[in-house]
Structures are given as C-alpha cells and as structure tokens.
Amino acid sequence: MVAQFGSLTTGRRRLLKAGAVIGGLQVASPFIIKARGETPVKIGFIDPITGSLSALAVTEVEAAKWTVEHINKTGGILGRPVELLVEDSANDTGTGVQKAHKLIERDNVDVILGDVNSGIAYAIMGVTAEKGILHIVPGGHTDPITGTDCKWNTYRTCNTTAMDTSAISGELIKRFGKKWFFITPDYAYGKTLQANFIKKLVAAGGEYQAELLPIATADFSATLIKAKAYKPNVLLNNMGGSAQINCMKQFLQFGMAKDMALGGALFEIEAVRSVPKEAQAGWWCMEWYWNNPSVPAVKTFVDAISPVIGKKPTARHWMAYVSVHAFKMAAEKAKSLKGIDMAHAMADMELPPEISLMPGKIRYRAGDHQLMSNIHIGQMHPAEGDPDNLFTIESTVTGEEAAGSVESTGCKMVFPS
C-alpha cells in the first residue's frame, strides 16, 4: 500500500498549502474524486478550524484530505469513492454538536471524525452514540472518552492524558526534580492532564502549585509571576495552540528560562515552529515523529506527503491519516458501513506498519477502544540540519505499558443488544 503513495496534482497541492492558513477554504465543501453515478462513502470531519486550536485542526484536515485522495486513487472504500465533509466547530461545544447533527441527519455521513478539543469530542459522542454512527477521535485526549464514559461506537487514535503523563513523569522527576508548577487550560483535556500529573508527582513525594486558565488565554503575566516566586524545578505548560505559544513567549520575556526547566506532556510541532528558538526546549512526549528510521514505512509516508504540505508531517497529520485508514479497514473488514458492524470490526483491530507507521503491535484495544500506540520521550530543541528536525527521541514507551489495564481506565464497554 505504501509503495503506491504518489504526488497530488499541482492544483490540489496549492489547495492544501492554502489550507495551512485556511482562510479561503470552504470547509463544508465535499472533497471527492467521484465517478458519475456512484454513491460515495461519506466521512464527516469536525474540528476547530477557527479559534485558539486552529493550527492543530488545520493540520488534521490537511492530512485527512491527502489521505482521502490517496484512498480514492487506490480503489476507494468498498469499491466506492470517498467524500470528505469538513465542518468547523469553532472551538465551541454547542457548535460542534450542531455540526454533528447536520453531518449525520442531513449529509448522511457514514462516520464522524473529531474533535481536537476534548470537550467537543466528548459532547459529540452523545450524538454519534444515539444515532449509531461510528465515531473516531483523532486528536482529543481527555481520559473519559475511552475511560469512564466510553461508548461502543467511539474509538480514539491519540493517547489519553494518563498515557502521556505515565510516559513522561518519571523522566521529568529524574532530570529536574519534584517541585513543579502547572499552567493548565480549564477544560476537559487540561483538567485530566493535570490530575494525572499530580497523581504521579505526589506518589513520588513531590510538591506543586497550579493555575487553571481559560483555553484562549493571551496574557500569562500574573501566572508567570506566581510561578517565578514559587521557584519550581520545572514549569509544565499544559496549554495548547496559540495559548501555549503566547505562554512560551512570555516565559522568555520574563527571563525565566535560566530559573527553571520546561517540560510536560505535549509541545506540538505546530506550536514549536511559532516560538523563539530559546523556547524550543524541554522534555516532552511526542505521539508520533517523522524522524524514526527504525520503521521503513515512515520514510515512505514522509517522502510522499512532505512535498505536498511543504514541510515534514507532524503527529496531527499522523492522527488523521491513521483515523481515516482505520475507518477504511473497519468498513472492509465488516463488509458494511453500519456503525455497529464497523465498531465490532475495530475491536482489537491491528494496524499494518504502513498505516500505524510504528514498530510493534499497534491495535485498537477491544476493552476501551483506545489505540495502543507508542509514545516517544525526548528533548525539544532548535532545528538541527533539517528545518523540521526539532525533536530528538531519547526513549520509547509502548502504548500497552503507558495505558495500564482496561480496568484502570474505568471503561465498562457495552454494545447494543
């Protein structure tokens, strides 16, 4: 399958590059290569194309478009062409729910993908479960999605916050110490992330202070003054998107880089590219990284998509790529587009290396519908050689090791009778 990757047309390449700034993209328009008279398979994709998490969302949509075109060029799904319908949740829960209803009830999609915002993804789950539609969450991390509030129809590709904190906490303690300060977004993702970090830190005998702030916070001065006065070993910047970027810039302006280390769960490449070199630092998780020569399929994927998007792919590209292909695999395994048939087909479904782009057995675990993917631990740094070489992998934790047992997640999976 990987050997068949190819370049898109010049026109499509321009469209995808325009998608990086999304301004002119009509996100609700169908994206399809369709033969006359054929009924398409429809993918509904909901993401915050506008708002503080837009850079992450645009990346996911960019990869979904590229993946759909590749699938259409290689036979579609169940022998039918694929149509991608993208809706903007605008980083608002009510809007995300409305868009889910529209895609299911008016557009008759066969699957829903989304949302980057964990709170929106969580809310959409209620709609998709009621309607019996397969729902894959490419990049919303809050634990209850595949934990206490897991649902038969919902699968997740990115990690849980518990997986990321389990993978990185020991490294932060070993390298920096046990006195931490958290700057955390006040919504589903941030709350579960911070709670999991605190659990690990307290168990190790550590101490902390924390600030919960609105997801789109721009001014971090008051919080950074508190952090400086506390004198932590490490500052954990748990914000995302533009808020994390603003926080990093102000961290430098306050001259705090000499006083404490940076680290935490996610400092995503989309954000790293937008901060000064001095803030391209710290120890973090990387849920997928392009510079991983141990898996030949990674280079094939990177070489195919990079000329189209104008840069090396990020973990967000990977999340969307895997999620679209997982839907295709589930439909073809089930020989059906019924939500319940595909949901059963995805249970313990193992991804081949050309889809997982990882070594080892990468599967959607049956008990909680969480992808058991590897987590890279390493150091962020200014670009070395290649302008996209911003992270060095120091160790890798398997998903099975980081996730713990199904019982520990609180998920009690129940399928309709």
What does this entry look like structurally?
This protein is of the alpha/beta class and 417 residues long. It has two domains: 237 residues, 3-Layer(aba) Sandwich (Rossmann fold); 152 residues, Rossmann fold (3-Layer(aba) Sandwich), CATH 3.40.50.2300. The chain contains 15 helices and 13 strands. Helix 2 crosses helix 11 and helix 11 packs across helix 12. The chain is globular, with a radius of gyration of 20 Å.
Described by its quaternary structure, the protein is single chain
CATH class of the largest domain: Alpha Beta
What portion of residues belong to β-strands? 15-25%
The CATH superfamily of the largest domain is known as Response regulator
SSE topology string: HEEHEHEHEEHEHEHEHEHEHHHHEEHH
Strand adjacency order, main sheet: 8-7-9-10-11-12-13
**Count of helical segments?**
15
Q: How far apart lie the N and C ends?
A: 36 Å
Which CATH architecture of the largest domain is right? Answer: 3-Layer(aba) Sandwich
User: What is the count of structural domains?
Assistant: 2
What structural class do the secondary elements suggest? alpha/beta
Overall geometry comes to globular
Largest sheet: 7 strands, mixed
Mean pLDDT over all positions = 92
How many strands appear in the DSSP assignment?
Answer: 13
Weakly predicted, low-confidence segments: 6-30, 32-37
CATH topology of the largest domain: Rossmann fold
